[in-house]
Write a structure and sequence with these properties.
Helix 1 (3-18) packs antiparallel against helix 2, helix 1 packs parallel to helix 4 (59-80) and helix 2 (24-41) crosses helix 5. By secondary structure, this protein is mostly helical. The chain is built from six helices and no strands. It has helices at 3-18, 24-41, 43-54, 59-80, 92-110, 116-135.
């Protein structure tokens, strides 16, 4: 793994560890707040690595780093949710969907749709919308779930 990806992975794990919350809803709200800071602080590294992806440079390295981050976050969700109230967050696919939603908010921030203050003001709403999407899904309806 290259230096940027290694640092991004380490910083993501630290951010995830430092993110407060005794429950999934508390953690998700704080994760959204913290994601803005994480992405802003790491924008140069993220931009460089995304540029490499656009040119198909080191695709396996990026994939491996991203997967490590997803699984690390999944482990945090599993620890916070032993009763599987938010069961999709116990699987790579659910965490991937969660990260995609958070990244979408970050893109909206960087595009100027929302200011930091507007995002922070709306974070409780965004957290509730995201989490409600995970509660209404029946685990037994899907065969394509990862087993790792």
């Amino acid at each position: 793994m290259n230096k940027n990806l290694y640092q991004l992975t380490q910083e993501y794990e630290k951010f995830t560890d430092d993110c407060k919350g005794e429950t999934v809803p508390e953690f998700v709200e704080n994760f959204i707040y913290g994601s803005m800071d994480y992405n802003e602080q790491n924008l140069p590294k993220l931009t460089e690595e995304m540029g490499k992806q656009a040119q198909n440079q080191e695709p396996e390295e990026f994939k491996r780093a991203f997967d490590e981050m997803l699984l690390y976050l999944r482990d945090r969700f599993m620890a916070l949710d032993p009763d599987k109230e938010y069961w999709p967050l116990h699987y790579r696919e659910g965490v991937s969907a969660f990260v995609a939603m958070i990244d979408g908010l970050i893109v909206q921030y960087f595009s100027g749709l929302y200011t930091v203050e507007e995002l922070k003001e709306r974070t409780p709403l965004f957290a509730a919308v995201i989490l409600n999407g995970f509660v209404g899904v029946n685990e037994n309806d899907y065969d394509a779930l990862s087993t790792d």
